[in-house]
Design brief:
The structure holds two protein chains of two kinds.
Chain A lengths: L18 H40 L2 E2 L7 E2 L3 H6 L3 H32 L6 H14 L3 H11 L4 H8 L14 H11 L2 H12 L3 H9 L4 H28 L4 H6 L13 H11 L3 H29 L8
Antiparallel strand pairs in A: 1-2
Chain B lengths: L13 H43 L21 H7 L7 H32 L5 H13 L3 H13 L7 H8 L4 H12 L3 H9 L4 H12 L1 H17 L2 H6 L8 H11 L5 H33 L4
Classes of the chains: A mainly alpha, B mainly alpha.
């Protein structure tokens, strides 16, 4: 897997030169390293680390961009957890992550397995399925989605044909979530491409051996495909989950920036935008941002901890 | 892991095996047809919204919502004419140019800054490198919300709201870890003998980077450039924060203004505008789909 922090580099020179020359050489190496890394270092300290600390400080203040920040201790956090809109934002975002991500990944894996053969046309199919991942988060597609799911729109008519209530999905607080989950599932192509690359690396002999042993497709899937693919599943699950927390443009366009109807599309990012950049309650928004960082951090740690039990790295065995 | 070789089946008479082979071939052909029918059906469902958008942009506004058909009864260019008129006195081409400047700027910035930084991570041995690499991976997972508020405060103090600077500076400072990571992965797969040989010939890191690494990295640079272009082109949150002046609006912002200002019944112009906003993305996709798909595929696998 890719998410390891080690960089293994053999020493640059085959035969190490004696003492002082080597030291001088290492000093030059270090200088070169920092020179090449300079853009990233600047970016990291000015645009990431610095702002992170600043927003940590702001989270404990009342700040509106115009008057100097006023230290209020834990007040923002206390207010947050009493704010019904904030709790609603968690509920909306949580539902979206909890349902959207697994459905999307199951669709991705199913289609990848379907495509994992030697038949012709694979390139075309793969590209067709991948296309929505490129455009799905755009404003254009959000507008199309809205037009398809609105009152009397295509999806609404099909729904009514099957006995769903009339009135469209866009204005119905109970149906905006399925609508947006469908939008994310529609973008299953990117994880599918990754699954497909992972499937290709599973040696065919494993399946042949299992066939000889009399294993059916279900057992092959459970005992070969899933374990062999688990590093890729882990990667997709982690990235897609973190990604799902950050949905913005589609919810913004479909609800016209309000998070409505009845706060049913009030996603975390949208609410943060409203508080921070429409009401200019920047301390409050910073507190929101830090709660999100902590939650995503915890989820990441949980994923990595749990990976010991279900992610198999085949590299060692061979 | 135990690997059991498939045991060869016992001897069969040639006549019998011929028949078996023929049977097998027919069965394969039927299975193949079934496979293509199934996959094409899924393709049709997946591509439907995009094709519907395109066809709707040629339909009269009254004939869009609820019209399942992909072929307009009477194709009209009126929607595009209206979209090209622009919004509130600002020309369509202004929006287009703004998006283009930002997208090209992103490509240039990301190509320069990320390749240089990736070289440091992949090829230079210096104290602190592993720590910084771990931090870089960390920023890959970090939600951007936590930096956006202080960044906005600083940029507005520096009077840089309503300029492109806040949207481009991160691209020139390798702040998009995805690209650094992609390039590090690619460089690690290049044979080290190349730079070692150059080293023995007395080349320094600058020479090795510019005349060995960069040319070999072309596939990674192309992939990054395409993604950088498309992501910048589609970006909505950044421009929404920093570009308040309609003269600086990008295509997605203009599209949003359009939806806001036109009456809800003018779906035709909205669809035309939505299509125009996606044209460069779809063109890139059609031309470079292999690079994109391969780029995504390798990203998830051990490099």
């Amino acid at each position: 897997m890719t998410l390891t922090a080690e960089v293994t580099t053999p020493p640059a020179t085959p035969a190490p030169p004696p003492g002082t020359a080597r030291k001088r050489r290492q000093a030059a190496e270090t200088r070169a390293g920092y020179a090449f890394l300079a853009p990233w270092l600047l970016g990291f300290f000015l645009l990431t680390a610095g702002p992170m600390l600043a927003s940590l400080y702001l989270a404990f203040t009342n700040y509106n961009l115009f008057a100097p920040p006023e230290f209020t201790g834990l007040e923002n956090f206390r207010l947050l957890f009493k704010d019904p809109s904030y709790l609603k934002a968690w509920q909306v975002t949580g539902t979206y992550v909890l349902f959207g991500t697994p459905i999307k990944l199951i669709a991705a894996l199913a289609v990848a397995m379907l495509l994992n053969n030697r038949r012709r046309g694979k390139g075309f199919y793969r590209s067709s399925f991948y296309m929505p991942s490129l455009v799905g988060a755009s404003v254009s597609i959000a507008i199309v989605w809205k037009a398809m799911f609105i009152d009397n729109g295509i999806v609404d008519q099909i729904g009514q044909f099957f006995g769903a209530p009339a009135g469209g999905w866009v204005g119905d607080p109970n149906r905006t979530m399925p609508m947006l989950i469908l939008l994310t599932v529609w973008q299953f192509g990117a994880p599918m491409v990754i699954f497909l690359a992972g499937l290709k690396q599973i040696p065919n002999e494993l399946y042949e051996a299992a066939s000889v042993d009399g294993a059916g497709p279900v057992r092959k899937f459970r005992n070969i495909t899933l374990p062999m693919l688990s590093p890729v599943i882990f990667f997709n699950l982690l990235l897609e989950t973190i990604h799902a927390f950050q949905i913005f443009a589609s919810a913004f366009i479909i609800s016209n920036g309000t998070g409505g109807p009845a706060r049913s599309t009030l996603f975390y990012t949208l609410y943060l935008y409203q508080r921070g950049f429409q009401d200019f309650r920047m301390g409050y928004a910073a507190a929101m941002a830090w709660v999100l960082v902590v939650v995503i951090g915890l989820i990441t740690v949980l994923f990595f901890r749990s990976s010991k039990f279900w992610v198999h790295y085949s590299g060692e065995g061979k | 892991m135990t690997t059991i070789a498939a045991t060869p089946s016992g001897p069969v008479s040639t006549e019998h095996s011929d028949q078996l082979r023929r049977q097998h071939r027919t069965r394969e052909r039927v299975k193949g047809l079934g496979f293509h029918a199934l996959v094409l059906a899924i393709v049709a469902v997946i591509l439907y919204p995009a094709v519907w958008m395109l066809s709707s942009s040629f339909k009269p506004s009254s004939d869009i919502v609820g019209n399942v058909s992909l072929i307009p009864d009477a194709a009209t260019f009126a929607n595009f004419a209206k979209a090209l008129d622009g919004i509130g006195g600002v020309s369509f081409w202004t929006f287009f140019t703004n998006s283009l400047i930002l997208a090209v700027g992103s490509v240039v910035g990301i190509t320069l800054s990320c390749s240089v930084s990736a070289y440091a991570f992949a090829r230079i041995d210096f104290p602190g490198r592993n720590t910084f690499f771990a931090l870089m991976i960390g920023t890959l997972l970090l939600p951007f919300h936590v930096v956006i508020i202080p960044q906005y405060i600083v940029f507005s103090r520096l009077n840089l709201v309503d300029t492109f600077v806040p949207l481009l500076i991160g691209k020139f400072l390798a702040a998009e870890a995805f690209f650094v990571f992609l390039m590090v992965q690619f460089m690690r797969n290049l044979p080290r003998e190349l730079d070692e040989a150059a080293r023995i010939d007395g080349a320094g890191h600058v020479r090795i980077f510019t005349s060995i690494m960069l040319p070999l990295m072309k596939p990674a640079l192309v992939t990054s450039s395409i993604f950088a272009f498309i992501w910048s082109w589609n970006d909505f949150f950044g421009p929404l924060l920093y570009l308040k002046d309609p003269d600086l609006a990008t295509m997605p912002l203009a599209l949003r203004l359009y939806v806001d200002q036109t009456t809800t019944s003018d779906y035709g112009a909205q669809m035309a505008m939505a299509v125009l906003a996606l044209v460069p993305v779809l063109l890139f996709f059609l031309v470079f789909q292999r690079y994109l798909v391969e780029g995504v595929a390798t990203q998830g696998l051990k490099g």
